[in-house]
Write a structure and sequence with these properties.
316 residues; mainly alpha
């Protein structure tokens, strides 16, 4: 029974797998290979699923679902990846059911909850069309949803849970038919979560980090609209997805280092403009450095960084 509720660092193997696939994706550019976008996108899904599991189902009770989906996502086979996302959806549903059964209550974040179901559907569409655009939609659902908590905490953001999220969810799903809506909803997203009149600072650098993340996604989505073509996908993967994935995961895994997150946002914006890849590599390196205490044996075993435990004056 202990393993049913005992957490583990489920996100750690997923993060390492994502970093490996991103590295292989970079190598594909050097080799002029055709698998660069698949490695990069699959790596992004690995990263996202690991953090999703950490948020909703970090208990060892769900380890079969964790490992099964990890293996399927590593295959690079689009059908198997889609099945892997279906496994993620089932595991997530079981975890939410268990939480409800134990009598716990929490704000319903439909953006996050719907993302793995959307992921299974999107990988099927990708198999049929080979259009990477469809793979953006589940990632956008997750990053916009999970960062609501980050911006609530850092910028006194407006709570946006439950049915209030429909104003974002509906246009994102319509994005399957009208791709331009993805950029539009990203541009107006800050209006949904920031109370300008009650803006408060949580420390100058923390506020700067959160603010620059919002500025970066708005600028990136705008460039994607204006320039179109290759920039349409590039603006999302570098300027929106990467910024918000790193933002929420740094806050979750190493909150004490979130004040340095602004450096990553600037580097990713530079990479978006330059198309060189070098600022993106630097941003990933800085990100890994910021969360390093969560990636070791202690983090895998306990699902938390050793530094966090020390800062709280406790021990495990």
């Amino acid at each position: 029974m202990k393993n049913a509720i005992e957490p583990w660092g489920v996100n750690v193997p997923f993060i390492y797998s994502a970093l490996l696939y991103w590295t292989l994706g970079a190598v594909q550019i050097l080799l002029k290979g055709a698998l660069h976008p698949l490695f990069m996108m699959d790596g992004s899904y690995l990263f996202y699923v690991g953090m999703l599991y950490r948020l909703f189902s970090p208990a060892k009770r769900y380890v079969l679902g964790h490992l099964t989906s990890l293996i399927l996502l590593l295959t690079l086979n689009t059908i198997l990846i889609g099945i892997g996302m279906l496994v993620v959806s089932i595991t997530l549903a079981l975890a939410i059911f268990d939480v409800k059964r134990y009598g716990s209550k929490f704000p319903v974040n439909y953006l996050v909850i719907l993302s793995p179901f959307s992921g299974a559907f999107s990988w099927l569409l990708f198999y049929l069309t080979n259009d990477y655009y469809y793979l953006e939609i589940p990632l956008l659902l997750y990053i916009l949803g999970v960062n609501v908590g980050v911006f609530m905490a850092t910028l006194n953001g407006r709570p946006l849970f439950g049915m209030k999220q429909l104003a974002i969810i509906l246009p994102i799903f319509l994005g399957y038919v009208y791709p331009i809506l993805i950029n539009i909803i990203t541009i107006i997203y800050p209006l949904f979560i920031i109370r300008v009149r009650t803006f408060r600072s949580k420390g100058s650098l923390t506020t700067l980090s959160a603010t620059l993340a919002l500025v970066s996604i708005v600028v990136s989505a705008s460039l994607g609209l204006i320039l179109g073509g290759l920039y349409f996908l590039h603006s999302f993967t570098v300027g929106v997805m990467s910024v918000l994935l790193f933002s929420c995961s740094t806050y979750a895994l190493a909150r004490y280092n979130y004040r340095f997150e602004w450096i990553i946002s600037i580097l990713l914006l530079l990479d978006l403009i330059s198309f060189s890849g070098i600022p993106w590599i630097l941003a990933v390196g800085i990100y890994v450095f910021l969360i390093r205490e969560s990636l070791g044996i202690f983090g895998i075993k306990h699902g938390i960084s050793s530094r966090f435990v020390k800062d709280q004056g406790g021990s495990l």
